[in-house]
Amino acid sequence: MTSNGYLLQTVDLRVSREEREILRGVNLVMHPNTVHAVLGLNGSGKSTLAYTLVGSAGYAPSRGQILFEGRDVVPLSISERGKMGITLAWQEPARFEGLTVERYLGLGMREPDPRRIEEALEAVALDRSYLKRYVDDSLSGGERKRIELAAVYAMRPKLAILDEPDSGIDTLSLNDIAQLIHRMATEGTSVLLISHRDEVVAIADVASLICEGVIVQTADPTSVCDRYSCCCRPCDHVAPVESEAEYERL
Amino acid sequence: MSDFEAIVEAYEASGGDPDLLRSPKVASLVVSGNEVLGANEIPGVTMTADQLADGVKARVVVAPGTQVELPVHLCFGVIPAEGVQRIVSSFDIGAGASVEFIAHCTFPNATRVQHIMEGVIHVGAGATMRYKETHFHGDAGGVEVLPKARVTVDAKGRYYSTFALSRGRAGKVDLDYEVDVEADGLAELDAKVLGYEDDDITVRETIRLNGERARGLAKSRIAVQGHAHSEVISTTEGNAPYARGHVDCVEIVRDQATASAVPIVRVTDDRAQVTHEAAIGTVDKKELETLMSRGLDEDQAVDVIVRGMLGE
After folding, report:
1. B289 touches chain A (CB under 8 A)
2. How far is the alpha carbon of A208 from chain B, nearest alpha carbon, in Å?
3. What Å distances lie between residue A8 and A4, A11, A31, A194, A219, CA to CA?
4. Which of A59, A115, A157, B19 has a CA positioned 20 to 30 A from the CA of residue B140?
């Protein structure tokens, strides 16, 4: 950990896509063992920030730093960042033909631990009957989403970036997600929670509002949500340029 | 070491349970080169095998109505580095019978081995046959695998075939299966092959849905890397009212490998429907990055994805 005590710090982070600057100097600090939300409309740069932090191909910063425990991880691959403890739960999780849930949950562990795998399933309100199922189209979107969260939980990363963790899951289980996120934080995983829904952001300890690729406010979730409600909806600042489809295209 | 022990040892090394080949409760046939080393029949399942100059001629008959509880094990192999093994086989599954075959083809030391399978299969009315053929090759790439099957599925019969070759070098593979399906029958063909270096893989699958409401699925999953090449030619015909067929081909290509897919769908009855999907390309970016973000190296992640796709 650095002397300033931050787990994650981005400094003037800039990312361009197809000659358009999407992140325009993001400055964000995150403390260990906290749940930090990034709130913004679709197209504000949230998912681009997530892909950039995790090191996805095509999202290399044109400028700026990403300091993780004081080390600039920009030159590191997604795999190296994963080994350091940075991972991402995608908004639309990947499908894996022929890969069982049990195997998938074990992949992020140094040594697959059956007890931990079952705990992870329980944490997303799924029972052990899912262990032998495949992480493919035979699962519903909501089930895949839960499995993705379970995989991140099972891994015990230092930083879990959750991109719209509630999308595709019925509202009844939003409470399950909140419990899971707090459980992660108490077990040593800091969570960067990315959402466009203020009710989700209420789960966080701290929130930042992102608009047009810039963090415009960092404060307690209530204050940030208030500003979001009054100033960002409706909003014509942003064009919907970032999407899962755009990520897939790269 | 006897030939039987040698083939059983190779079978065990490839993951098989040698006790199954010795169990009186399990029907089995063990062939090394052109020698029949063991044959065990059980009630309702008869097997005859005759030696040929370059292989074995085998006939398997399952009596009508027989429900075979444990899979029938067929063990074929060539232990020396060079040789030819031709298996001329016929399978006759009687009406209403149900049976599963697990065929292990083991060529651990091959530098120049040709393995030819010429099968004629008849699945009787209302019968079910599952045939799973798994290959275990050495790393020299010296195996030429030429499996050819002509299958007829009578009314309400079901035929499921899986061909898997993902352990060791594929070598040259030219798989050629043709199935004719009668009314309310079902055929599913599934081929899974992993190719390295200069392996050359051709998969030809043809399903003709000739009876009303007949159904068919021709599925292939191929992964090639190095300078390997793969070609999949899948043909499905809907020739009768309400026949339903589907072709599903995925090929993953890495390095300088090349792949092609030719899905052919043909309908001769306006009430039939046949669909196809084919995808060729590199490993899916999101799948790869998901696993890498969990700390796997790129090669490890690719291996997990490919082996998952190949059903390992």
Report:
1. yes
2. 24
3. 10, 10, 7, 15, 17
4. B19
Quick one: closest CA in A to B299, which residue?
Answer: A79
Phi and psi angles of residue A161, each rounded to the nearest 5 degrees, phi first: -100, 115
Would you say residue A151 lies in a domain? no
A148 within domain boundaries:
no
Total count of domains within chain A:
1
Distance (Å) from the C-alpha of residue A94 to the closest C-alpha of chain B? 5
pLDDT tens digit sequence for A225-236: 988 888 776 665
Is residue A117 domain-resident? no
| A188-217 confidence digits (pLDDT tens) | 999 999 999 888 888 899 999 999 999 999
Q: Quick check: A2 contacting B, CB < 8 Å? A: no
CATH number of the domain to which A240 belongs: 3.40.50.300
Residues of the domain holding A14: 8-94+159-249
Helices (H), chain A: 46-54, 78-84, 101-106, 114-123, 141-155, 174-186, 198-201, 221-227, 244-249
Chain B residue numbers touching A155 (CB-CB < 8 A): 294-295
| Inside any domain, residue A127 | no
Band of residue A240 on the pLDDT scale cut at 50, 70, 90? very low
